[in-house]
Design goal:
Layout: E1 12-15, H1 17-20, H2 31-36, H3 38-44, E2 48-51, H4 79-91, E3 95-100, H5 110-117, E4 129-130, E5 153-156, E6 161-164, H6 179-194, E7 199-202, H7 233-247, E8 254-257, E9 279-280, H8 292-305, E10 314-316, H9 325-329, H10 332-342, E11 348-352, H11 409-413, H12 419-431, H13 434-438, E12 440-443, E13 451-458, E14 460-467, E15 473-474, E16 482-486, E17 499-500, E18 505-509
Parallel strand pairs: 1-2, 1-11, 2-3, 3-7, 7-8, 8-9, 10-11
Antiparallel strand pairs: 4-6, 5-6, 12-13, 13-14, 14-18, 15-17, 16-18
This protein binds 1-deoxynojirimycin.
Amino acid sequence: MSDQPWWKSAVVYQIYPRSFADTNGDGVGELAGIRAHLDHLVWLGVDALWLSPIFPSPMRDFGYDVADYCDIDPTFGTLADLDALVEDAHARGLRVLLDWVPAHTSSDHPWFVASRSSRDNPRRDWYVWRDPGPGGAVPNNWTTPWSEGGPTWTFDERTGQYWLHSFLSEQPDLNWENPEVVEAMHDTLRFWLDRGIDGFRADVIHNIGKDPALADVPAHQAKVPHCALNHDPRTIGHLRGIRAVVDAYPGDRMIVGEVFLTETKQVPAYYDSGRGLHLSFNFPPMFLPWEAAAWRGAIEEAAALFDPEDAWPTWVLSNHDWPRHRTRLGSEARARAAAVLLLTLRGTPFLYMGEELGLEDAAVPPERVVDPGGRDGCRAPIPWTRDSGHGWPPRAWLPLPPDAAARNVQAQRDAPSSTLHLYRRLLAARRNCDALASGSLHLLDGLPDGVLGYRRSAGDERLVLIHFQSGEVAVPGWPGSVVEVASDGRGEGETFDGTLGSDRAVILKPATS
Ligand code: NOJ
């Protein structure tokens, strides 16, 4: 793997900074909290950190509404705090990715304030403005994911036009068809690359290109958020420019794009045969039912669509936008088996902080709801310690997840049977084995109903077996093979007994290895 860029064999760990660790007792996490726990992340065994947005923001979408791309919000610290974090991370071999939000700014961004000030302001065309339709109607039928699917348009009384916002009205879409916008956004990348940042997760990057005709979508799609439908070839052209900026820096800097589209087959275009994104998320598998056949289909589809040379796949089960997979799958056994799946598939896995503790979403009472998109539950603070506060003041910005007395870092580090230790063993297994980190994947045929199995090979070999149903099944492993990791921890280091219980997964090593 040494000739491959680091991000092909890495495991990326997503940090939602508000909820990771609070060192100043204000109930909100900050950069110093991340810095204080780097040794823990090294102990866990991840390779790179992706920080959700930390830039100055009015926080109407908790940082995905950026008011200044080149500074740090005081909630999280200062530029000096970020530099110190990056330096300490690099000293430990951890890379750091920031969350770049190129498709829209905050309505508080000086660019939008200027754009809105008059029709002839030089920044007017940096955003997407349109005249009202007949009778003052919105310019088209596009909808947002929120406000019950309300229109993507808000009318500006002063200048008599609507502005486009694929998300909240306080998140106006940038006009990437204006070359000045392209150059200004490239400069924001250079600002962080010059500071030694290893790359970016690029928010809804498939939504930067738009056909200036802004035509209606067919009526049957009018309730689908437009951001999940927009698949415009102009974006690919913009990605080439972005790629050139990033690739001009040494050290395999990279961009992983949030391409939030409804079909996996739409995703490879954004890699553009190595000229576009370095990596792209592929979200449809995240929503699969817990069924062997469904996952087999997703793995086959990925193998057919993603070219390992220049469209290396990615896998993710949880993030800050959707219920955690522990909550979705409904049991600890399934969540643990799913971790074996995530960390043994062919592609770069993304972990969401707290999944390694088996966290469920917090129950957030109506009076404590703060997110306009109803996503507070999966953003609850990480419980660090056994004591009653778990590392947070009595009232953190969100309630803690359920069962924090058992699901906290301190308790789980002390318990070898914990989910935290399972993730650690899985990460070590990947790190020590080229087959798991980057080898080929060959699906096994003829397994019992409800069992998915595949062989990973790259000189060395591993066999992965996952049982998606209840009850015990007999599964042919390799003769004499040894259990390297088991989702329930049982039998590790011993010869595989040829059976799998309910929702159990194993990684097997050949007898001779
Ligand atoms: C996707 C981000 O993950 C989400 O949190 C955000 O609300 C939207 N993009 C808008 O930026």
